[in-house]
Amino acid sequence: MKERKKIVVGAWKAYLNKAEAEKTATALTEWRNNNDKKFDYDIVLSPSFPYLVSIQNIISKSDIALSAQDVDTVEMGAYTGHIPPEMLLDVGCKYVILGHSELRHRKEGLKMGLGIIHSKVKAALGFRLKVILCVGETIEHRNSKQTFTILTNQIKSALEGINENIVRDNLNIAYEPVWAISSQKPVSPPTSKEINETSQKIRSMIEKYLSKEVADTVRILYGGSVNTENVCSYLNEDNIDGVLVGGASKESSSFINLLTAVEKKVSLPLIQ
Ligand code: PGA
Q1: Across-strand partners of 166?
Q2: CA–CA separation, 105 vs 141, rounded Å?
Q3: Could you give the angle at which helices 18-34 and 252-264 cross, rounded to 10 degrees?
Q4: Reported confidence tier of residue 1, pLDDT bands at 50, 70, 90
Q5: Most confident of 31-35, 240-244, 262-266
Q6: pLDDT, tens digit, for every residue of 244-262?
Q7: Which among 64, 220, 227, 229 could bridge 199 via Cys, Cβ 3.0 to 4.6 Å?
Q8: Does 245 sit in the ligand 1 pocket, CB within 6 Å?
Q9: Which atom of ligand 1 is nearest to the CA of 248?
Q10: 84 Cβ contact list (under 8 Å, min separation 6)
């Protein structure tokens, strides 16, 4: 079986203004170009739409890749307010995050959204954008033991029927329990063992709806309050191929600290 390269995604949500985003991207690019290239992970940054071009200008001097936070399913034409996949490719995006819970819950609608997300996955992969598809249960689902029903629903509806040839090597799934995102104590993220088991089940679902051969190429990430202290406990697990980092990626000091923890395979104290 082909080894899956690990991946660390910095998801900047709507946190940073232009100057802040450029400052973080510049510091990361300098760090990446000076650091040990044995650190063979994919690093991806996902700024807000208005800053994609300026961030790409900065990170294109390194091997850090650009991701958008969403895409529309239309082609270029008379679609005011829409962003077709071609435009993301045109400004240098290699990845697109789809189905993030903050979009599923606020914009796409939980039920209707399943069909929309399927169309977006298909459109993005069709243009050879790499997809980071987010899935995850709410605290209510978890408390009523519906986690796997929800995950199965999200994965089946997003992937069933999509041509395997466009999925192969281009799909990443981020398992993000909604209740663990941006969590403040006392809500603490799930244990790495628990996430490892869930990731294994997610891979079996992909196998069921696509094929084993394709499922083996899919990277499964964990997202939800990942930080410098806990990141390695996740990445040490066999079935976790990467992490999607929100809050801890928006400032260069904390993201570089997190990447250093990954590189050295240690836990580092949080920067206050
Ligand atoms: P967080 O965000 O790291 O701030 O919890 C993760 C996410 O929303 O994917």
Answers
A1: none
A2: 14
A3: 30
A4: low
A5: 240-244
A6: 999 999 999 999 999 999 9
A7: 220
A8: yes
A9: 3
A10: 71, 72, 73, 74, 75, 76
